Amino acid sequence: MSTTDRRPLPSLPTQPSLLISALPLIVLVVLLSYNVFVFGDDAVSGSNQIILIAAAAFASLLAVQQGSDWMDLQDGMLDAIRLAAPAILILLLVGALSGTWLISGIIPAMIYYGLQILSPEIFLPGACVITALVSLFTGSSWTSVATIGIALIGIGNVLGQNEAAVAGAIISGAYFGDKMSPLSDTTNLASAASGAELFTHVRYMALTTVPTIIIALLIFTVMSSGSDDANATQRTEEMTAILQNTINITPWLVLPPLIIIGLILRKVPALPAIFCGVLLGALFALIFQPDLITALGDDGTYVNLMKVMYTDSAIASGNPMLDELLTSGGMFGMLSTIWLILAAMAFGGVMDASGFLSRITGFLVSRAKSEFGLVSATAGTSIFTNVTAADQYLAVIVPGRMFAPAYAARGLAPENLSRTLEDAGTATSPLVPWNTCGAYHAGVLGVSTMAYAPFAIFCYLSPLMTLAFVALGIRIARINSSPQPNS
Fold it and tell me: How much is the pTM?
């Protein structure tokens, strides 16, 4: 996504105070906390969206009282929503993808073959590694979660795994690959925003990213070692037998995911690549699963395939657990997530256009008196932007532009900034329920952000690791010199 065409901040009669600027955020956090306490995991079904809209309205009233023009605030909201438009389109296509890949047997086939390979004792680290490899090759955490991630959730359920832990392992692997891949948009964005050379940025980021994923894998291994479900083998055999009897399982069904990965590797943008996946799913359904299409209803093949893309669909296997796995909401199932993103971007747009966001981040910059303070302020600003502006791209761009001169003034090479932007901005984006990333992954995996967040070990360890490296003076890169310890 490009933000170069975003309108500049409006000129205000006076700069808002720090307290006034922070007030909408305080109101938002208080209301959301109470709302989650009341509604629990169901909060994302609509009540959180209302809270975000109410917080945006409160921020707008406050901004107008401070001298902002309503049209500038409205344009700010529209600009923010425009920034999220590609994500919304991807979500709609992922809904259609899940429907066609279900009825074509692609997802059931991945579950079937996955059950032959993975066991409860290695499942969590295995899921993390598999997703990491797909994300590394494609450069997209969203693509890896929407393809292999959905299948891994199903496999984990059959093996008796904690669904939230499985989602956390998937997210951890997806964001490791996303950060370390030169194909990733956020990796390129972080290097561009900071002025670091791309491969220098990737190599320098590996210093903190590799130890973080190793720690995460060790923890996942310990968590999996306690898996002693005595019925897992029996359940696996039962499920694979039912899948064989219900669906035409063939190795050819693995081809569409491989084609999508190949398209991404050839730098085909996500939207056309996923659309190709939808078409392949429909084609493979016609070739391999004509009986399943007929079983969906009496309206004919064309109508049944269309319904699979846009509304609820299910394959009846006769097994309650498998029936739950073999369901899809289509595009319709993504609408609550899209609503959440729209509401969050409206709030973020007001915070940006009113000057409240820049006032808060400017305060953080002024407090950075040491190298550790500078990196801490950068990380804090990235996380803060993820929470308030609800978009990982802004969480990379805004701090990148703000802090680049400060890093140069201290003689710190730009890869220090780019690494911090990724460790704090990219990695923490899926931990915020109303962020585009948090909302997306929750919608695709069917596991709430608050449920999987404690298990997304890589994501919350990443900013802590980058802070630890700076605090200990480990290989700090200086301008015109190699990484070296602090003096």
Answer: 0.77
